[in-house]
Each structure stands twice: as C-alpha cells, then as structure tokens.
Specification:
One of its GO terms (biological process) is 'de novo' UMP biosynthetic process. The chain is an alpha/beta fold. It contains eight helices and 19 strands. Strands 1-2-8-6-4-3-9 form a seven-stranded mixed barrel. It has a six-stranded mixed β-sheet with strand order 10-12-11-13-14-19, sandwiched between helices. α6 packs across α7.
Length: 359
Amino acid sequence: MMKNVTLVLSDGTRFRGKSFGYDAPVAGEVVFNTAMTGYPESLTDPSYAGQLMVLTYPLVGNYGVPPFTIEADGLPTFMESERIHASALIVSDYSEEYSHWNATESLACWLKREHVPGITGIDTRELTKVLREHGVMMGKILFDDEPDNIPEADYEGVNFVDRVSCKEVIRYNEGAGKKVVLVDCGVKANIIRCLVERGVEVVRVPWNYDYTDMKYDGLFLANGPGDPDMCSDAVEIIRKQMSQSTKPICGICMGNQLLAKAAGAEIYKLKYGHRGHNQPVRFVGTKQCFITSQNHGYAVDANTLDFDWEEMFVNMNDGSNEGIRHTTNPWFSSQFHPEACSGPVDTEFIFDMFVTTLR
C-alpha cells in the first residue's frame, strides 16, 4: 500500500502524491529534467546531489533498472557512479511493471534499497510550470501519517563537490601513452570511459588536490554539483597551473565554470537551469549547431571574460554561455555533457579535440 505524501515548495505550493520509493521525508532543491529516458544514469549522476529530481516525461519505470555491476577498472557498467546521488525522485506516473532485456529489478526496489524517496501521482508538468515561473526553489516531501516529521534542507552553504569527490588518487588505464589528471568534482563514469577509450592514462584526483608538481600531459576538469563559488581551492590550483604551464586543459559542466573563474570571469545562477537531452548549442564563429545533454544550474557570465578568452559555444534558447576557450593556449571547455550518458552523442568530438592537443 503506497503512503500518501505531499510535496511542499518554499512558496507554499502543494502537490499531493503517493510514495513508491523509500518512506522517509526529505528536503532539497527542486529541479526538473526534460529527458525522455536515462533515469538510471541521471539518478547516479553526482551533479544531482542535494536535489529533488522532477522528471517531466510522464511514464517512468517501465524499463526497470540494469544490474549494478563493476568493471575490472572499477567503473560501474551501466551507471554513472557507485550510488544514487539525487535526494528524491518525483514522477507523474510510475510503472510498477517493467520490461527490458537488461533489467534486474524495478525502480521502486532500487530506490528503497538505496533509501531514496520516490513519489508518483504528481502533475509534473504543472510543477515544472511553477518552477519555470518562479525559478528553482527548495521543497519538502512530507508523509501524511507523520505530520510532525518535517525535514530541513541541508543545501545553502554546503560544498556538495567535497561530498561527492573521491578522497584519494585513483588511476585508470595505467601505463598508457599520455597521462591526464582528472579533477574529480563529481565526475560521471562515462567521462572517464571516454578518455580511457582514447588511449590515455587517467589520474583521478580529489577536487582540492594540488597536482601542479605532478608529471602529466593534460588537465581535465570534471562536472559536479552545487555552487562553483564553493570551490575556491580548486580555482586557485587551476590558476596556479595556468601560470606555470600551457599544458592542455579541458573542462565539462562545473569544469567550464571553474576554468572561467580561474580566468577571472564571474558565475551566476540560472532561473531554473538546463537539465535534459535537447538543449541546442551553437559553435561560435560558425552556423553549426548541436543537440546536447545538460545538467547545470549555474552559468558563466561571458561579458566578464578577459580579453584573451572567448566564448566557444552559446545556448540557442537563452543565449547563455556553453563553453569558453583561450585565444592562444589549448585551454577550452563545454558547459554541456559531450559524453552524454544518457543522451545525444553529437559532441563527443570534444574528447578528440582534447586528446589531440596532448604533447
């Protein structure tokens, strides 16, 4: 029997639903994702840490959940990290029955096993309209039979990057030709896969690790959750590296923002962020456009870039920055996810651009 629950937004708006996941109240930032598929990858994306994820696609759960297997290199086979990072999942219609050749359990069983609440019966499109008009806001999932159990959100002022980053150095594809230091701000597994598939050794380091004295051929700045202004240590280390060497640097998502901050630019919070698989992006200086997968709530203010930096990509919907590049050095980044797991793979050439710059 599903318990009755209420989603209460910080402006007082209420949505009634049923619990199909773990039965526990939770609070966090309510954000919406417009992707039609990919809930196993999205839930395990560390960039969703601290957030209540709303899926606008109405039917969720019909293809179940793949096995949580780990490859020889330590990466999960079908997920983006070792566990669910989203604080809760909010859907319109949860499918109790599932069918897929690779499914081993239902979405509900997975959520319960990982102690993550899930609610169904919510008009997620109306909820998304509220979030689009007001902007993302905090919310609470409350259980009707526990009226006094009211959670408080652990969000403002929290360094979520520090929570999800690795705590020690991890190596992949050890002994390969070129060596890349990957700064783990909450890296998705497919970013590591894309680098390894291109024949480089990946040295994954914590977000605030000083790698400037290490021997390596290129620097890769990964995605991550929360406010980039909380990562001043990482910015200072990137700035130190850029002052010492012109070694290639590539960033994705949070990596784009940290690179921009190291270059002196400012960051601002988007009204409701970009989360989905259909964001149109234009390559600056051309008429070439790409459909991209995105998951971010902050953006680079391109007007604050130094004279020796320029925009590399722009968003065709709202004109916001989608990537930057240095005018002379091999330093560039994308706000979108070229590894796109799940999602379109139109921009995976970003990894090829980076690897070809390694000396």
